[in-house]
Amino acid sequence: AVALVLVVGIPGNVARFREGANGLVAQTQFDRWFIPSVPRNPIVKQLPRSLEPNSLDPDLTVGWLVDSVPSGRIPAPRPLTPTELANQTLILALRPSATAQPAPCRLLRAPAIRVLHKGDSLRVSIGRADVIYLAQDGGHSLPTPLRTSPVVALAGPLRLRLVPIPGGSNTPTVVCG
């Protein structure tokens, strides 16, 4: 009976291991293009040198990456598509903030363009919304959920499209900032 219990658990454990390994492979592939291109992103000049682009490695900072490019420690990345560059810019420049105080809140009935300057913050108060970074070169990021906790612009100006996501019971979307 004990052996049967152990054998029954094996397929589930193998499946969990496989899921974890797939996630690690995906993260590694993401880091393979993301990290080497960070110091070459035009927005990096506006970012704090202490910014950690990868939450999995707190010792890796924007300053270290920028300083390491001339020495060749950071290999040249493959060329990024406009969407990849816009995604990276949004990830780097719009960060969670525990101290940000968003501006007054407004009802978001339809997609709207907002421009955030360095230090401006944004959050969803009611409902749900996606944020899309609109790059000057015409590229745009993939939609990213805007959270109820504030995010702050570490660089700017950032031209963003805010898109309300319809919810049940005709819940309105209210965005602050």
Give structural notes.
There is one protein chain. This protein has helices spanning 2-37, 62-68, 82-93; strands spanning 94-96, 105-107, 112-116, 121-126, 128-133, 144-146, 151-153, 158-165, 174-176. By secondary structure, it is of the alpha+beta class. It is globular and about 65 Å long.
Q: What layout of secondary structure does this protein have?
A:
Blueprint (H helix, E strand, L loop, with lengths): L1 H36 L24 H7 L13 H12 E3 L8 E3 L4 E5 L4 E6 L1 E6 L10 E3 L4 E3 L4 E8 L8 E3 L1
Antiparallel strand pairs: 1-7, 2-9, 3-8, 4-7, 4-9, 5-6, 5-8
Order of helices and strands: HHHEEEEEEEEE
Radius of gyration: 20 Å
Tell me the quaternary state.
single chain
**Total number of helical segments?**
3
Helix content: 25-40%
Described by the principal axes of the CA atoms, the overall outline is globular
Major sheet: arrangement of strands: 1-7-4-9-2
Tally of strands: 9
Low-confidence stretches: 21-29
| Strand coverage percent | 15-25%
Question: Average pLDDT value?
Answer: 84
